[in-house]
Amino acid sequence: MIRNLCFICLIAVVHSVLGESTQSYKDAVTPLANECIPQVGASDDDFQAVLNRNRLETRPAKCLLACVFEKMGAFSADGRLLNGDNIMPIIDRLYGFKEYQSVLRAQLVRNCVDQVNGKDTDQCELIAQTLHCIIEQQ
């Protein structure tokens, strides 16, 4: 009985955390994505894929997310994603993580950025590969 109650509490906490993260992400991304849509020729489906953090299948969707990240200052002068502690303020703004979550997420993000950086010079592909890495490792 107590075990079931603990499990239910854990599910409620996880659901609450994901809900906060999703709303924080949408609040941060929506205005920037709206600015980027005409620049990259993204469709409503592309916008929804970015907004819902789905796997990005089309070039316009990938470029839409790259544009958002560029507007947030996530790329260095040489076109690579910022890494280490430099990317974390952007990730915190996007996901609104609480302190205890940040440690776990920070390591995941750092690992993915390090893994993907330098493999592709195209920012649209770079951001899509990074997102794919993060989704796969969650």
Automatic annotation (TrEMBL):
- Signal peptide (residue range): 1-19
**Keyword line:** Signal
The record's section on SUPFAM superfamilies has:
Insect pheromone/odorant-binding proteins (SSF47565)
The cross-references to SMART domains, in alphabetical order and at most eight, read: PhBP
Pfam families membership = PBP_GOBP
Coiled-coil positions: none
- Gene3D superfamilies xref list: Pheromone/general odorant binding protein domain
Q: Which domain of life is it from?
A: Eukaryota
- The protein, known as: Odorant-binding protein
